[in-house]
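Hi W., the pyridoxine-5'-phosphate complex you wanted:
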Amino acid sequence: MEETRTQAEHHRKIRLGVNIDHVATLRNARSGEHPNILSAAEIACSNGADSITVHLREDRRHIRDKDVSCLLEAGFRVNLEMAATEEMISIAEHLRPHSVCLVPEKREEQTTEGGLDLLVDKERLKTSVARLRECGAEVAMFIEADAIQIEAAKQLGAQAVELHTGSYAIAEGEEKQQRLQQLRVAARSADSCGIFCHAGHGLDFANVESVARIPEVIELNIGYFLVAQALFDSLGAVVARMKSLMLAARGAGD
Ligand code: PXP
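Structure:
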């Protein structure tokens, strides 16, 4: 079927949610406010980010409750990643982020390890989605690229799914192509179910384009790589400025 003009325009649009959790990781390594997460959000948004994503973890290892409220008060569009626990749902009801992505959470994990299993504990998930929607959030569910999970997300009342791209990101060779194909098929089935399709996890300069080319994917959430790469893109300039301040303090020119 030939794409209509509106469909083609819709398919060209893709949003970037910048996850700034690891700016907070750095900030928390010392007890001050540097690097400031509002400044990071400002830089991200003035360079093309469409929203700021933060994962408020049960152990508050990076983002803290106050960060979420400050980002909202400062007017950023906030996508809150969180587990579907009573504590987090109450926080979301109070803070009212623009969108929520429900994720599985294990205390010991380094990062979100897999998608939610939406076939387990359905009633609790359904109530969580309803409560979040009630407070005005668009609700996504972070899942593996699997048609059964997509259908379940729809049944549970979510408006979007976020496909976990982690296993695609780390796969190599033929397996990478298979993982990519699973993402393509899943994105298509989300679209035909009538729910929005987002994707994220482990994306970087080398692997983002194949995912961004999937027409039904309307949003990517990317964090770790951006924060890590920012070091290499700017470390030279920062070191040079420090050395020049030191030399100037000794009366030497640049
Ligand atoms: N999407 C979800 C649901 C996540 O949990 C994360 C990690 O916090 C990301 C996207 C971003 O992953 P990464 O930091 O690897 O880019």
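Residues 10-248 form a domain with the TIM Barrel fold (CATH 3.20.20.70).

W.
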